[in-house]
Design a protein that fits this description.
mainly alpha; two-stranded antiparallel sheet; 474 residues
Length: 474
């Protein structure tokens, strides 16, 4: 099956074989023309050259993948709205892609672009295994490639080849299967690790869509598919595949550390590193990092949690991010961040035993009683001058009042009568004052609250001596 697919890409077989021959002439001068190192490194160099040429497509793939992640909620809403009209659903999807500038096939571009080179290399190695000249590989190079072994396994043999074919190339079937099996496992493990890094660190954790579940499922399915396909590929193709998987893994790690997806754990780690650098040096020298800061500033209230945390950290350090990505020292921003940046912590009361709580309660009661007694004495002292003042004013009024001589006798009788009442009033007020003076002591003994005792003190009659009212005021 793979032979027929590889024949479809025969047009690119000659360029691929020519590149391999050029690298072989370079490494053959160092390690020897017939060694596995010369041919193996030639294949590795071919992979590196192809992947460097595909870097622009990889960047486009990253942008397309992130746009698809952002559009997943809108796509789901369109599917729910037009679930009974497939044509309208497709039209709305295409309209959404056009408005956002997203191409769903962009995420597959690197894989599609690598496929011709992959099958062309498979075609070249199959010709070497069948002792057939192909592309730029002549008879001398064909003999050299057949002698080349990688860890004892010929480049052109497969995991499922029989022992006679392997023995004809000067190797044992056991060695071939061990080497091929290890390479297949490493290839699958690198694929799984790369996909897992993408799903756990470089995905917006605030967006939960079916697309994420699909990617999570493919994370476990792809390694199994590669293991099943790997047993049908020559060792040289496994070298190519393992190399390209390792390249992809390193490339993804670089993207995760330097250009993470907004809202992901990788972005949080990146912004914390950037915050540490900015607070240490007071500025950001990298143009790419300044561009990222400018993007965060331009978002305004639409920033995610990681970006808000980054801006708050800059403010606490006295740095204000500008629209061009630069940082300016600002004492006002630092003061505001220092005042309102942290939340007030709730102070927990200290633990106390039952005896300590009882002792503190008794002390509080004694303090309240003492305060009540002090207030009562102060009120009594304040009331006495007022009473004397009023008593001094009344005789003046009596002397100044002018009445007829015929009415003076009754007024004397009335004043005498009131004089007796005043004496009895003074006696009563003295008794009441004594009773009020005894009330705090009684309340202290009974243990009543301070509010109740103060209420009793205020509800009684006015303390001190009370003068009778003048007849003219009745």
């Amino acid at each position: 099956m793979f032979d027929s697919i590889a024949s479809l890409f025969s047009f690119i077989t000659w360029p691929v074989s020519w590149v391999i021959v050029q690298f072989h002439s370079l490494y053959g001068a160092i390690f020897g023309p017939d060694t596995g190192w010369a041919w193996g490194l030639s294949i590795v160099s071919l992979v590196v050259l192809i992947r460097i040429c595909l870097v622009p497509l990889f960047v486009k793939q990253i942008k397309s993948t992130r746009n698809m992640q952002v559009l997943q909620p809108k796509m789901k809403a369109i599917q729910e709205r037009y679930k009974n009209d497939k044509q309208r659903q497709s039209e709305e999807m295409m309209k959404l892609y056009k408005e956002t500038g997203t191409n769903p096939l962009s995420s597959c571009l690197p894989i599609i672009a690598q496929s011709p080179f992959f099958f062309a290399l498979y075609h070249v190695l199959a010709g070497i295994a069948n002792n057939t000249k192909i592309g730029a590989i002549n008879s001398s190079l064909l003999d050299s490639a057949q002698k080349a072994h990688i860890f004892g396994a010929p480049l052109s043999v497969k995991f499922l080849d029989n022992a006679d074919k392997v023995a004809a190339l000067g190797a044992s079937l056991t060695t071939v299967r061990i080497v091929a099996g290890i390479m297949i496992l490493m290839m699958s493990a690198s694929q799984f690790y790369t996909q897992r890094q993408l799903m756990t660190k470089n995905v917006d954790i605030t967006v939960k869509t079916p697309y994420m579940q699909q990617q999570k499922m493919l994370m476990y399915v792809f390694p199994l598919i590669f293991m099943g396909m790997g047993i049908n590929f020559p060792v040289g193709v496994l070298v190519y595949w393992l190399t390209t998987n390792v390249w992809t893994m390193g490339q993804q790690m670089y993207v995760i550390n330097q250009n993470p997806t907004p809202g992901s754990k990788a972005q949080d780690a990146f912004l914390q590193r950037l915050l540490k650098t900015a607070t240490t040096h007071g500025q950001v020298r990298s143009r790419r990092k300044r561009k990222m800061i400018a993007t965060i500033v331009g978002k305004g209230p639409d920033r995610n949690d990681n970006e808000r945390k980054f801006v708050t950290g800059l403010a606490k350090a006295g740095l204000a991010p500008q629209a061009d990505g630069s940082l300016v020292k600002s004492e006002t921003v630092a003061a505001e961040a220092g005042v309102g940046g942290g939340q007030a912590r709730r102070q927990q009361p200290k633990r106390q035993s039952k005896s300590q709580r009882q002792a503190s309660g008794i002390a509080t009661t004694h303090t309240a009683v003492a305060e009540t007694e002090t207030e009562t004495e102060a009120e009594a002292q304040a009331a006495e001058p007022t009473t004397l003042e009023k008593g001094g004013e009344q005789p003046k009024k009596q002397g100044s009042s002018k009445q007829a001589p015929a009415k003076q006798a009754p007024s004397k009788q009335t004043s005498a009568k009131h004089g007796g009442q005043a004496k009895s009033g003074q006696a009563k007020s003295g008794q009441q004052g004594k009773q009020q003076g005894q009330q705090p002591a009684r309340s202290k003994a009974s243990g009543k609250p301070a509010a109740a005792r103060s209420g009793q003190a205020k509800s009684g009659q006015r303390k001190g001596q009370q003068r009778p009212k003048h007849p003219s005021k009745k």
